[in-house]
Known about the structure:
Layout: E1 8-12, H1 15-19, E2 45-49, E3 55-59, E4 69-70, H2 86-100, E5 104-108, H3 111-114, H4 124-139, E6 143-149, H5 155-161, H6 168-183, E7 190-194, H7 203-206, H8 213-237, E8 242-248, E9 252-254, H9 259-281, H10 286-295, H11 305-311, E10 316-320, E11 325-327, E12 336-337, E13 344-345, E14 351-352, E15 358-359, H12 361-375, E16 379-383, H13 401-419, E17 425-428, E18 451-453, E19 465-467, H14 469-479
Parallel strand pairs: 1-5, 1-17, 5-6, 6-7, 7-8, 8-10, 9-11, 10-16, 16-17
Antiparallel strand pairs: 2-3, 2-4, 12-13, 14-15, 18-19
Helix pairs in contact: 2-4, 6-8, 8-11, 12-13
Amino acid sequence: MGFKKDFLWGGATAANQYEGGYLSGGKGLSTLDAIAGGSHEKPRMITYKTKEGKLETGWSRGSLPEGATGYIDPELFYPSHEATDFYHHYKEDIALFAKMGFKCFRLSISWARICPKGTDELNEEGLQFYDNVFDELLKYGIEPVVTMNHFDTPMYLADNYDGWSDRKLIDYFLFFAETIFTRYKDKVKYWMTFNEINFLRNWTTIGVHTADDQHKYQAAHHLFVASAKTVQLGHKINPDFQIGMMVAYIPSYPMSCRPEDVMESVSFNREQEFYMDVQVKGYYPAQKLKAFERTGVVIKKEEGDDEIIAAGTVDYIGFSYYMSTVSSANPENVKLIGGNQQPAVKNPYLEESAWGWAVDPLGLRISLCKLYDRYNVPLFVVENGFGAEDKIEADGSIIDDYRIDYFKKHVAAMKDAVDLDGVDLMGYTPWGCIDLVSAGTGEMKKRYGFIYVERYDDGTGDFSRREKKSFNWYKQVIESNGENLD
């Protein structure tokens, strides 16, 4: 019993939050390069030029006016431009991952580092950078797990094509996919197409200026076709590739046993299941087609799209799990708290982190059960973690017992899902295994890692690395294959 012998223990990062070097080595701009820093209290901001040439600043999660282009304001601080500088520290960081005993490392490839405009123009220096990273990982026996697109759309495509609302991006993405599949076919086995595909909806993530349902779901259709074609292409290039999808999974419980509350939770969960239904089952679910009819959304398809989606289903489901939420049919009962890319509803039975995220380890087991029962494909928990403000003690140590407690309970929940529920679980890559920039708030003080990086919200810090207490705890978890959690 317990986790399988080849269980993929590791950690997860994203290029736009960790890599840095935002214009180094021939990299082009991405949409996320235009988002300035923020805080828990103050949202991240984006500066852009209107089509009339006027500079404006707005909330990063909003849509941009039609024809607006991203702009880097020299007066603002952009934490992702250097992030925690994996670009210059990858050898040091990978050595630390090896010391922890990582079996895998999840990272993303920056599309704009390979194709500076997102088109068919290639940047050899960017390709070589990832060759070097993969070689360093494999030197230590660490399997790369590659997310092909983690929120960062090349800005040229956002500014000139309105991002994924334009079908032409399918072919541009396939050029990118074929390039990296061919280049790294003997170095990378595990791939995921689009990170948290259910959260891709605006200019910052997919380059689409108008974030209404029509544009959102039309862009999603283009993403589905691109993903399906990518899966087929990857399997042709190397039949041993394991290519998955990735969704942000936030299970919703009904506020009460009132049937109206139960139905509200069904509706909430269906929105996440929709993205998995299409990519795992290979078709649009009936409930979503009915929802399109009610709301007037019309998906423009080309001949053969449905067949492409049916033929390009994924090999596994990768998902992030940070919290659960609650659904109620009565808005007056809803109290919103913090959440992963969207507000969640307060659950009176759960504690919350300092950033207002509900802490629900049993919810991870519930999620694993629901997803495996529904899809019956291997599952991979590719993000899970606890953001907190860590303190360096006088002796230089960082005693993050709160993080250890969080992970201990979540690993135990996964073990129950495997032992008691029969879930086929591939691996576990906690989010931000090394400190990086928070996607939601743009902060450094909201830290997730087992490794502390000397980098602060005011842009100071020498990027030096140090191990937290959780570093050695996670090392023993990996050594014991999840048996020793004390």
